Amino acid sequence: MLAQVIVLAGPSGAGKSRLAERLGLPVLRLDDFYKDGSDPSLPRITEGPNAGLVDWDHPDSWIPEDAVKTIATLCETGTADVPVYDIAHDGRTGWQSLTLGDEPFFVAEGIFAQDIVAECREAGLLAAAYCVTQSPSVTFWRRLVRDLRERRKPPFVLVRRGLALMRAQPLVVADAATKGCVAVYPKHGYVAIDELTAPRRHP
What we know:
Elements: E1 4-9, H1 16-23, E2 27-29, H2 64-77, E3 79-86, E4 91-99, E5 105-109, H3 117-122, E6 126-132, H4 136-149, H5 155-178, E7 182-184, H6 186-201
Parallel strand pairs: 1-5, 1-6, 2-5, 6-7
Antiparallel strand pairs: 3-4
Helix pairs in contact: 1-6, 4-5
């Protein structure tokens, strides 16, 4: 085994991507394993103002099997081809190569990351798993600003989705904890991961 994965789960907008960038480790974006928007198996919102729209916050909207296979390939060989997903266009736009180089760790981050923790641990791929969290109101505003800036969806959809996610955030964090993640604020997660990885990265 050449490397191990550090999983970062947590609500959308909680700071997973920022933490991953700050760590300076190679990053596998699990959001790139979403299904294409044309996939008939995508789950739909069944009630409320967004009824009928694709439920991108449902775990059936992504392909965890592909994510785990890619993680295993990275751990075993140090390189893997990964999809490039464009959220604004609801689909994959190509592929790119992710190479770890000499790094003994890499990060896999995404809103469904908690769902692969057990499988990664059983396969000996997992170094650690965290659920990044913030105040629900802080997460709401950070997510909304980001999504509006990137024009991910129409503004009214983003606001309604954001309010629903804010109400659901405590349940998301609790679910991640039951699936093996340690809940942390970003700054505490940085310290914990730095302490974990430093001995092997900087002997």
